[in-house]
From TrEMBL:
Coiled coil: none annotated. The keyword Oxidoreductase applies. InterPro entries: Bact_Lucif_Oxidored, CmoO-like, Luciferase-like_dom, Luciferase-like_sf. Keywords: Monooxygenase, Oxidoreductase. To bacterial alkanal monooxygenase alpha and beta chains. NCBIfam families: oxido_grp_1. GO terms for cellular component: cytosol. This is FMN-linked alkanal monooxygenase. Residues 7-300 form the Luciferase-like domain. The keyword Oxidoreductase applies. One of its GO terms (molecular function) is monooxygenase activity.
Amino acid sequence: MINVPLSVLDLAPVAAGTTPGEALRHTTELARRTEQLGYNRFWVAEHHNMPGIASSAPAVLIAHLAAATSTIRVGSGGVMLPNHAPLVVAEQFGTLEALHPGRIDLGIGRAPGTDQMTALALRRTMEGLSAEAFPQELQHLMGYFAGDERLRITATPGRGDMPAIWLLGSSGFSAQLAGLLGLPFSFAHHFSAQNTDAALALYRENFRPSQWLDKPYAMVAVSAVCADTDERAEWLSWPSALSFIRLREGRPGPMPTPAEAAEYPYSDLEREFVLSRREGQAMGSPETVRQQLEALLRRTEADELMLTTQVYDIADRVHSFELIAEKVVGGLRREG
């Protein structure tokens, strides 16, 4: 039984033959529909130098999505802190929280989410780009929201307008740090399934109660493609798989069509790679997806699941979330 809140992670995928503007409009359409369906939160991810992903400016997109919706929580999954000065992030998300109080999540990642050259172009200095600098950068960011006088700068908006802060991770570092700080933690199971159990254990073992949480709160992000049949879901899943193969080969581009993905001459190694990435994810008919999500919940004891659905057509993307809300869960409940 799936008895935890469900949320959405979207990358504003740019499909072949479409534009980034269309991708952003599709993400807005998805946010509105998932709000109607009762999903708990809607996050967008920061990526750069990737022609197939339009969510390169999360704060701007979140402002638009929050204005286009009214009740669903909206946030970043995440903002990659090495790419930005902490003061800039504090002012951006302080502005969002001031405009939409109680609805903004600031999910923070430790990796740049791009190549080193692009990261340097964003930050314009090597300072702050190393993983070792992350704890201090995070401390400064939270200090701006709290009005820490030692920083000698007042973030306006920012001070007194702190969104809900999450740490994101695909390994143990952020899991342990989130526990020590008493912050909620979201794990990227959708691309790092082999590290899920160990990271969640680290988070729970190191958790210290804080002003934000009395006990650990872990969310697990999982790829989910739900269609009317298992065969249809399989067909819809291959464009995302081919996109990832091309990204690994240094040839990123728009998401291919299902027909193009079906005709691609996959090597045995590529097929094995795709199948290994699907382990622990959710793909199939409503009954198949229910069984897969229930198994993931038993394994992780997650407090919330965040679903990411990367398929070519927006109608199929929306339909997947509709099927999960209506036939997998039988109606969603929203929590803070």
